[in-house]
Design a protein that fits this description.
It holds the Pfam family GHMP_kinases_C. InterPro entries: GHMP_kinase_C_dom, GHMP_kinase_C_sf, GHMP_kinase_N_dom, IspE, Ribosomal_Su5_D2-typ_SF, Ribsml_uS5_D2-typ_fold_subgr. It catalyses: 4-CDP-2-C-methyl-D-erythritol + ATP = 4-CDP-2-C-methyl-D-erythritol 2-phosphate + ADP + H(+). The structure is a single chain. Helices cover 27% and strands 22% of the residues. The protein has helices spanning 154-166, 188-204, 210-220, 224-229, 264-275, 287-295, 298-302, 310-316, 320-329, 351-364, and strands at residues 86-103, 109-128, 135-140, 172-177, 232-236, 241-244, 251-257, 306-307, 334-337, 344-348, 369-375, 381-382. With 383 residues, the protein is of the alpha+beta class.
Length: 383
């Protein structure tokens, strides 16, 4: 396994997107951050990285370079008004292992967090805005009515952070086309932040080095660096210290989407309450799980899926137990709550099994919708 250059830098000043404490949002990240709204986990914006079209901003072994689907109503390099614009496609994630340590003095939790990027995508577009306009954001897609259109949106803060880094005004119009569930435990807000960084960097011609982009990602939130690089990775610290994880082949997943969301800080607090004063072991990655990824073995991976936040998520949303049971009854190799939930993730043996599982889950009435897709997916990609 190899480290992603720059992913560990700038962590001390990072404002986390997900885990315990006041106002943080996002899933699978280490702990609290004041001022981060739970609904910010659904924000996004179309953007670009300064790389040539179709190249990923970092690809782990086994991450496919599928041609990205266009966001509704747009074409590459074209804003709705016909002005020059740039669009970035950014993936959702699933945590195949989320081991949560005790609360640190800074309020975060240390994690052993094994991420897989999956083929559900937001599209973030950055278009020019006049001098002094600042950053404005619009959003479309499922759950977009719950996405903040101000600084509560992590994509807006990403644009402002990049502008401040380069000493320029954050004049830009961001548009987010959502397909990643909002507040669903799949890092939608983090994906949008990574997309906004890349899009604005390309739009403004600031040519930010990749290691600096990763540092800025870590300052925005715990899951944002992984949204940039995609593929598969082990996240340590609060999730922002990334090591590349080798993957062979393709894994087939079905995601059962729920109505509404869950607040990541609330889920972490519930996890802490359930543990009480008992000592919490240091989180460590599961060697058998890493071997299953490396060998491309879905049955071996299914046997090792683990999420320390799942009991807390089930306590807050008991109906998720019915969703998990429906998936198992329909032939899933295994299922778990994705991150802090409420999305449930099911591993299937192959593409046909995934399609049948998605149909069965939708017919069960235990979820709003079910989506079959694959992993690992590439990271943030300039359209």
């Amino acid at each position: 396994m190899g480290s992603f250059t720059g992913a560990s830098t700038g962590a001390s000043s990072a404002a986390p997107t997900g885990s315990s404490a006041a106002g943080a949002s996002g899933s699978g990240s280490g702990s609290p951050a004041a001022g981060a709204s739970p609904s910010a986990s659904g924000s996004a914006s179309r953007s670009a990285s300064g790389r040539s079209p179709g190249r990923s901003a970092g690809r782990a072994p086994g991450a496919p370079g599928n041609a990205p689907a266009r966001a509704p109503g747009t074409s590459p390099g074209t804003a709705p008004e016909g002005e020059r614009a740039v669009t970035v496609r950014v993936p959702a994630k699933v945590n195949v292992q989320l081991a949560v340590g005790g609360v640190r003095p800074d309020g975060f939790h240390d994690l052993a967090n094994v991420f897989l990027a999956v083929g559900l995508y937001d599209h973030v577009t950055a278009a020019p805005a006049g001098p002094g306009a600042g950053c404005a954001v619009t959003c479309e897609g499922p759950g977009s009515d719950r996405v903040p259109l101000d600084r509560g949106n992590l994509a807006v803060r990403a644009a402002e952070l990049l502008a401040a880094h380069h000493g320029r005004a954050p004049d830009v119009r961001l548009h987010i086309a959502k397909d990643i569930p909002v507040a669903g435990g799949m890092a939608g807000g983090s994906a949008d932040a990574a997309g906004a960084l890349l899009a604005c960097d390309a739009l403004w011609g600031t040519a930010t080095p990749r290691h600096v982009l990763l540092e800025l990602c870590a300052r925005l939130g715990s899951d944002v660096p992984f949204s940039l690089v995609g593929g598969a990775a082990l996240g340590r610290g609060r999730g922002e210290l990334l090591t590349e994880v080798p993957v062979s082949g393709t894994f087939h997943w079905v995601f059962a989407l729920a109505d509404g969301g869950l607040s990541t800080p609330e889920v972490y607090r519930a996890c802490d309450r359930r543990r009480g004063a008992a000592p919490v072991p240091e989180p460590e990655p599961d060697p058998a799980l890493l071997a299953a990824l490396r060998e491309g073995d879905p049955r071996a991976l299914a046997a090792r899926l683990a999420n320390d936040l799942q009991p807390a998520a089930l306590a807050l949303r008991p109906s998720l137990a019915d969703t998990l049971a429906a998936g198992r009854a329909a032939g899933a190799l295994a299922g778990l709550v994705s991150g802090s939930g409420p999305t449930c993730a099911f591993l299937a043996a192959d593409a046909d099994a995934a399609a049948a599982l998605a149909a069965s889950l939708e017919a069960s009435g235990t979820c709003r919708a079910a989506r079959a897709t694959t992993a690992p997916a590439s990271g943030a990609v300039l359209r």
